[in-house]
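Retro notes (design track)

What went well: tokenization of the new backbones is finally stable.
What didn't: we kept losing track of which sequence belonged to which structure.
Fix going forward: every design gets posted as structure first, then sequence, in one message. First example under the new rule, 219 residues:
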């Protein structure tokens, strides 16, 4: 392998993409995601999902705001536009849901605890957690196309979380990756990001599974 290829392989953006590939495949195949893509997820369950994701995003984004001043990679990569909490609130208002009366699922409470632990013990890891949610916007564009008609949604309402940047999605993701790749990170710091990203894939998988279970239990 040439030195250049070896260096490329350790590029943090490459490491994140390749080392979480299997987890992405697993996440895509979660029953809730499959139902969403097939246009078979009831609108009310989609709104339930937004409620749980609000709690996850709120915790993570608050922690990132707190740690941005002292973690250079967070301030270099995470812009305010990437905070999804306001977009979810827009959608919840559209669905007539009250963000003040959400009951967190067990899996969501575990997610919040894990975000808090990361913030306390290794704040750089917050960037790895955030990478997963920000990256998921790539797939969300396709999901929106498939799911929106089935749920009776249009860009005028209910789709802001799936399409936060509209046509600017590739541009926003490109800037995210470019800024991340430009960060000076030691191999240990890269490991921290990759491990945090892996944990976030598992966290989201569990939240989605918890929602699916709750929905099945409700019949
Ligand atoms: C059925 C569900 C899903 C579909 C169809 C899907 C599809 C995609 C597609 C097409 C891309 C772009 C690949 C590329 O251009 O290289 C992508 C990227 C990504 N997706 Fe998904 N996705 C799904 C679910 C998820 C979920 C649930 C998560 C998070 C838990 C997620 C996280 C990511 C991340 C982090 C990336 C960026 C990978 C990278 O380039 O570093 N996806 N997805």
């Amino acid at each position: 392998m040439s030195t250049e290829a070896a260096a490329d392989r350790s590029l943090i953006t490459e490491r994140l993409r390749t080392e979480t590939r299997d987890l992405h495949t697993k996440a895509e195949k979660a029953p809730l995601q499959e139902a969403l893509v097939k246009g078979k997820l009831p609108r009310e369950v989609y709104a339930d999902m937004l409620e749980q994701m609000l709690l996850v995003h709120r915790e993570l984004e608050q922690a990132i705001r707190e740690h941005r001043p002292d973690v250079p990679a967070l301030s270099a990569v995470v812009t305010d536009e990437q905070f999804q909490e306001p977009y979810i609130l827009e959608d919840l208002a559209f669905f007539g849901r009250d963000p003040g009366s959400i009951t967190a699922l067990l899996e969501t409470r575990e997610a919040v605890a894990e975000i808090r632990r990361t913030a306390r013990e290794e704040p750089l890891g917050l960037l790895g957690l955030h990478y997963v949610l920000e990256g998921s916007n790539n797939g969300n564009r396709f999901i929106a196309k498939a799911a929106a008609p089935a749920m009776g949604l249009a860009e005028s309402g209910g789709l802001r979380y799936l399409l936060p940047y509209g046509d600017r999605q590739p541009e926003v993701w490109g800037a995210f990756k470019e800024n991340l790749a430009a960060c000076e990170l030691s191999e240990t710091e890269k490991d921290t990001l990759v491990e945090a990203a892996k944990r976030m894939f598992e966290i989201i998988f569990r939240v989605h599974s918890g929602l699916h279970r709750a929905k099945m239990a409700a019949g």
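Added context from the reviewer: The mean pLDDT is 93.
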